[in-house]
Automatic annotation (TrEMBL):
Identification of the protein by name: Thermosome subunit alpha
InterPro entries assigned: Chaperone_TCP-1, Chaperonin_TCP-1_CS, Cpn60/GroEL/TCP-1, GroEL-like_apical_dom_sf, GROEL-like_equatorial_sf, TCP-1-like_intermed_sf, TCP-1_chaperonin, thermosome_alpha
Family the entry assigns: Belongs to the TCP-1 chaperonin family.
Name of a matching Pfam family: Cpn60_TCP1
GO molecular function: ATP binding
Chain positions covered by the region annotation Disordered: 1-26
Gene this protein is translated from: thsA
PROSITE patterns (UniProt xref): TCP1_1, TCP1_2, TCP1_3
Record key words, sorted: ATP-binding, Chaperone, Nucleotide-binding
Length: 519
């Protein structure tokens, strides 16, 4: 046995080691980053994504692009996870995080070629990320987070994204109104704001509904389409003939018995309608099934009812109106009802939507977004959700900082200043981190039609003299200026999360020197 090789891996396994493994992983990470790089900033371009089934998505949202790309390489999937984490934590900055991760990998590749050990790179990157977080704190705008500043945050998030025929300004006002509605003074209840879309009108018809918009139709065509000062019942049950708990067989021997059985069944169904009418219910949202005869009885009593309500809609309606979810009609009580100023059913094309407005609790609001085509409303929905998320992040997670690449310029300057005090080869990694941050203003400049090198030089020079400099878009191009004066601001949380997630992904990939794949 001595001297014979021992095979641990199966014959079908593929193994890549050392520099080849590092180069392969870094190349995959950079490729994914470059795929979204041209979408960055207000002058960024869109991507058209076509699925196997022919479904088309047109967007410049980094998270959506990476999610729908058919990516197989495991290192590339780590960059996708960066965008996913960024989206889940703060709702925006996915392209920024992905581009930064790719550039950190590119700079790490240069260091590896200069024989800098991966451990030194990882330690230097982590130290640089800590310095970067401190630099972000120094960039915080001290102004009060009033509606005007929050609208600038929302507008900055949506500028350059597909918003149809309406500009980012009016949409930003709607977004801030929605967030203020669910802000209790300490925390934003972001889950209480939903975006509902409908094709058939221009984007300028987008409106804020103080309540819930549900994709539900009345259970019977003769039910009222408009109920004011409505008592609302949310019922977690079926309004149909009850079935026995055991299997049983009944023998009907004459017509009187049949008529008695039919009358009993009819009486049970009529009883549901009578109970709801006597209790004072005006509108019933039922999560279960409603028998057609019950629906007819309710319609004759002037009660508006909906059946098979989605659980999320039922929860939202209960929250907005103050209703309790009722599990049985035997002990129904008016104290369990909610209240709405108006419940109306509107027709849009072949479909109907139900609006529950002016609820007693008013804890839920809906941004009702319109658009001429499915592609427009889909992109508008993504833009609105991003704007809602960044305004929430600004209020809940630490204020705002200058946008337009200004914060990245400030961070890079801090890193270069402190790199000299860092001993060993970690200093090279810190300087590389600073160089990697330059990719963001350079990309903004390139996407705006400017020369990226000239723009970067001017940004650094202006920062040295004025301590704040960003690339402000003016018409078809951009110029170096003060982003605060131009109204371009970002939540600090977006910058913090982008730095953290990009650093973690890059350092994880750099440390890999052996890839074992089973076929």
């Amino acid at each position: 046995m001595r001297g014979q090789p021992m095979f641990i891996l199966s014959e079908d396994s593929e193994r890549t080691r050392g520099q080849d493994a590092q180069s392969s992983n870094i190349a995959a990470g950079k490729a994914v980053s470059n795929a979204v790089r041209t979408t960055l900033g207000p002058r960024g371009m869109d991507k058209m994504l076509v699925s196997d089934s022919g479904d088309v998505t047109i967007t410049n949202d980094g998270a959506t692009i990476l999610e729908r790309m058919d990516i197989e390489h495991p290192a590339a999937q780590m960059i996708v996870e960066v965008a996913t984490t960024q989206e889940e934590e703060v709702g925006d900055g996915t392209t920024t995080a992905s581009v930064l991760a790719g550039e950190l990998l590119a700079r790490a590749e240069d260091l590896l070629e200069d024989d800098v050990h991966p451990t030194a790179i990882v330690e230097g990157y982590h130290e640089a990320a800590q310095i970067a977080q401190e630099a972000i704190d120094d960039q915080l705008v001290e102004d009060e987070l009033d509606d005007d500043l929050l609208q600038k945050v929302a507008r900055s998030s949506m500028t350059g994204k597909g918003t149809g025929d309406v500009g980012a300004g009016p949409l930003a006002e709607t977004v801030v109104k929605a967030i203020r509605q669910v802000h209790d003074g300490e925390k934003v209840q972001r889950d209480n704001v939903t975006v509902r879309t409908r094709v058939g009108s221009s984007s300028s018809a987008t409106d804020l509904v103080e309540g819930v918009v549900a994709d539900e139709e009345p259970a019977h065509e003769n039910m009222p389409r408009r109920v004011q000062n409505a008592n609302i019942a949310v019922l977690n049950l079926d309004l149909e003939v009850r079935e026995g708990e055991i299997d049983a067989e009944y023998n009907i021997t004459d017509i009187d018995q049949l008529e008695a059985a039919i009358d009993a069944e009819e009486g049970e169904l009529r009883g549901y309608a009578d109970t709801l009418k006597e209790s004072g219910v005006d509108v019933a949202f039922v999560t279960g099934d409603v028998d057609d005869r019950v629906a007819s009885f309710l319609a004759s009593e002037g009660i508006l009812a909906f059946d098979d309500i989605d659980d999320d809609d039922a929860t939202a309606i209960a929250r907005a109106t103050g209703a309790k979810r009722i599990g049985t009609l035997s002990d129904i009580d008016s104290e369990d009802f909610g209240h709405a100023d108006l419940v109306r059913v509107e027709k849009y094309g072949d479909d109907e939507l139900t609006f529950v407005e002016g609820g007693a609790e008013a804890e839920t609001v809906t941004v009702f977004a319109r658009g001429g085509t499915e592609h427009v409303v889909d992109e508008l929905e993504r833009a609105l959700n991003d704007a809602l998320d960044v305004v929430t992040a600004a209020l809940d997670k630490g204020g705002v900082v200058p946008g337009a690449g200004a914060t990245e310029i400030a961070i890079a300057d801090r890193l270069r200043s402190e790199a000299a005090s860092i001993t060993g080869r970690k200093q090279l990694a810190v300087e590389a981190f600073a160089d990697a941050l330059d990719v963001l203003p350079r990309t903004l400049a390139a996407n705006a039609g400017m020369d990226p090198i000239d723009a970067l030089v001017e940004l650094r020079s202006t920062f040295e003299s004025q301590h704040r400099a960003g690339l402000v878009t003016r018409g078809e191009t951009g110029e170096v200026g003060d982003p605060i004066e131009a109204g371009v601001v970002d939540p600090a949380a977006v910058k913090r999360e982008a730095i953290e997630s990009a650093t973690e992904a890059a350092t994880m990939i750099v440390r890999i020197d052996d890839v074992i794949a089973s076929n």
